[in-house]
Design a protein that fits this description.
The complex is a heterodimer.
Chain A lengths: L2 H28 L2
Chain B lengths: L2 H20 L7 H6 L6 H12 L2 H14 L10 H10 L1 H8 L4 H8 L2 H34 L3 H49 L4 H9 L19 H18 L1 H8 L4 H35 L8 H10 L1 H27 L3 H29 L9 H9 L4 H37 L5 H26 L5 H23 L6 H21 L6 H20 L10
Helix pairs in contact in B: 1-9, 1-18, 3-9, 3-12, 3-13, 3-18, 4-13, 4-18, 5-11, 5-13, 6-13, 7-8, 8-9, 8-18, 8-19, 8-20, 9-13, 9-18, 9-19, 10-13, 10-15, 11-12, 11-20, 11-22, 12-18, 14-15, 14-16, 15-16, 18-19, 20-21, 20-22, 21-22
The chains are: A mainly alpha, B mainly alpha.
């Protein structure tokens, strides 16, 4: 696995975690 | 529709076809036609992969689903990034280095011609049928909205697609996909802006109102084999579905086989991993905004104009009664929504949810009456966003939206036609009938096969219209075979696997999925892929232990 692929993987992981946190915040703020 | 909207649609269609004609220069031989000479940059492949996945069903069905059911559908895609990463380190390098034209060709090198032919045949059957439903989905909606015959709508979508796919091959398809992706995302963002601007209350208060109906509930952590949209079915079932789709479905594999190198192929897949969940969340959020729009302004009783007209004509008294109750319920809900938006008292939100339930109850009665009056399924989720765009958005938006629906449909259909043609020619025509055929003969066969599959898909589209919920139909077709085919590719990675184990495992996996599908229909189709893949690997591996291992070879 090349270092370029590893760093892309890391970015993918970060974006997914951020997306999930944002969706979670959306749910917690607006759903009772 | 205003003539300016039609001009936008015609310009879009002309650009796609003219660009397809320009791309014929790169299709002098079979590798150029089917794999663009393996020269496409990663970002073009990535956008092409994404455009292929966003079909018209996604654009009109998923927004409608967001409006009626909320955001929880996004959980379906939670497995996608995991699948993309796994594929990037497993199947992608295998297939790219093998220099194959189809994913199934690789299975002959690893196992035997039987497994290759069966998996390719299953792909042709399931994708050929699903291609019809991909055309049918927007075809049916356009037919009802504009009052045209279905056949004209199918031709409007199918004919330009067949022309540029036949003439330009995968290169035309991929570059058209890039432009189509821009049109689709542009149209979606424009609709978001207009919907937010049209809200009569601040966005934050409006979302609080929508949230009280559960439409902003994204996560469901319950574990259920019968519920499709939960966190766990998305993570587990979704990962297997996406592994199968992106790893073994020729329509996707062919995209990254056209990339310049293994790294570019991986990067193109990771582009989907980056953007799929945010994009799907955006599409569903548009649905929620549509719900809010119709909460604060009069919503149609039936979104399907054809059913509305038929019910009004056949049952005028019942229609008038329903309409009057519906108008009163809408008015009460509108007031309750404004009260709830203005006040933070919990009673105000409770009152809104009650009024919303009354509106939905009258709508359900109207849908039942429409089903009885027309003798057809009256589910009208797919008509919500087209009605909104045509009835309420500013001039030009309808044209952009229609162009985006056509773009979404065409990008998906073109990829399917191109891959169906590749599998037909490489896995059957060349493999069994004309092994010594020259490049020109194969190129011509590819063009003829593309055209024939296009005609087949259009014919299926005319009949698929009566199949009911189109989103589910498209997903279900693949689910019967996908998991089992994935299982064969997983076996291919195990050194000890034998050809007999793979073939028998494949048959057993499909039988197991069929048994579950018919014996326990309550099990969600997302789990079929897990069941199919696991059964193939277990049965195939056990059988391989008692049969001689098959060593990979060149054809």
């Amino acid at each position: 696995m090349s270092s370029q692929f590893r760093s892309t993987l890391l970015r993918v992981l970060i974006i997914q975690v951020v997306a999930l946190i944002l969706l979670w915040l959306l749910q917690s703020r607006y759903t009772a | 529709m205003h003539w300016i909207n039609w001009v936008i649609v015609v310009v879009y269609l002309a650009v796609v076809i003219i660009d397809g004609l320009r791309r014929t220069r790169g299709t002098k031989d079979i590798e150029g036609y089917f794999l663009a000479g393996r020269t496409l940059p990663w970002w073009a492949v990535g956008l092409s992969v994404m455009a292929t996945q966003i079909s018209a069903v996604t654009l009109i069905g998923t927004t409608g689903q967001g409006a009626t059911d909320g955001m929880r559908f996004v959980q379906f895609y939670f497995g996608l990034p995991i699948a993309m990463v796994l594929l990037g380190v497993t199947i992608v390098p295998f297939l790219h280095k093998a220099k194959v034209y189809t994913a199934y060709e690789f299975l002959e090198r690893r196992f035997d011609p039987r497994t290759r032919s069966l998996t390719s045949l299953l792909f042709l059957l399931s994708r050929g049928m699903s291609c019809g439903t991909i055309i049918a989905a927007p075809g049916v909606v356009l037919s009802a909205i504009f009052g045209w015959d279905l056949i004209w709508c199918v031709l409007l979508i199918g004919l330009p697609t067949v022309i540029y796919t036949v003439l330009g091959g995968v290169e035309a398809v991929a570059w058209a996909d890039v432009k189509q992706m821009v049109v689709i995302v542009g149209a979606l963002l424009a609709i978001v802006v207009v919907l937010v601007m049209r809200l009569p209350v601040p966005l934050d208060d409006a979302l609080r109102v929508a949230g009280s109906t559960g439409r902003l509930r994204v996560f469901d952590f319950s574990f259920s084999l019968t519920e499709t949209y939960t966190f766990w079915s998305g993570i587990l079932g979704g990962t297997f579905l996406m592994l199968s789709y992106f790893g073994t479905d020729q329509s996707q594999v062919q995209r990254y086989l056209a990339a310049r190198s293994v790294d570019e192929a991986r990067s193109s897949l990771l582009m989907s991993a980056y953007w799929k969940i945010p994009l799907q969340a955006l599409i569903l959020l548009i649905g929620v905004l549509v719900f809010l729009f119709y909460t604060f302004s009069p919503a149609p009783l039936l979104y399907n104009p054809r059913h509305d007209a038929q019910l009004r004509e056949k049952q005028p008294a019942e229609y008038a009664m329903l309409e009057s109750r519906y108008t009163a319920a809408l008015s009460a809900r509108d007031q309750a929504a404004r009260d709830a938006a203005a006040s933070s008292a919990p009673g105000a939100l409770e009152n809104f949810t009650q009024q919303n339930a009354s509106v939905e109850s009258v709508r359900k009665e109207a849908l039942d009456a429409a089903a009885k009056a027309t003798g057809e399924s009256s589910r009208d989720v797919n008509y919500i966003i087209p009605r909104l765009v045509l009835d309420h958005l500013p001039l030009g938006f309808a044209g952009i939206f229609l162009a985006a629906v056509l773009a979404a449909a065409m990008s998906s259909i073109a990829a399917e036609l191109n891959s169906l043609s590749t599998a037909s020619v490489v896995d059957f025509y060349q493999r069994w009938y004309r092994p010594n055929a020259g490049s020109t003969e194969l190129l011509n066969a590819g063009k003829i096969a593309t055209a024939l599959w296009g005609v087949f898909a259009c014919v299926v589209a005319l009949y698929a219209a009566t199949l009911g919920s189109l989103i589910e139909v498209v997903n279900r077709f693949g689910s019967f075979f996908y998991g089992s085919i994935l299982g064969v590719f997983m076996l291919a990675m195990i050194k000890r696997s034998s050809a007999l184990g793979a073939f028998v495992g494949l048959l057993t996996g499909m039988a197991a999925v069929a048994a579950v599908s018919f014996g326990a229909p309550q099990v969600s189709f997302l789990w079929y892929n897990v069941i199919g893949a696991v059964v193939v690997v277990v049965v195939g591996y056990l059988l391989s232990l008692v049969t001689p291992a098959t060593k990979p070879r060149e054809i």
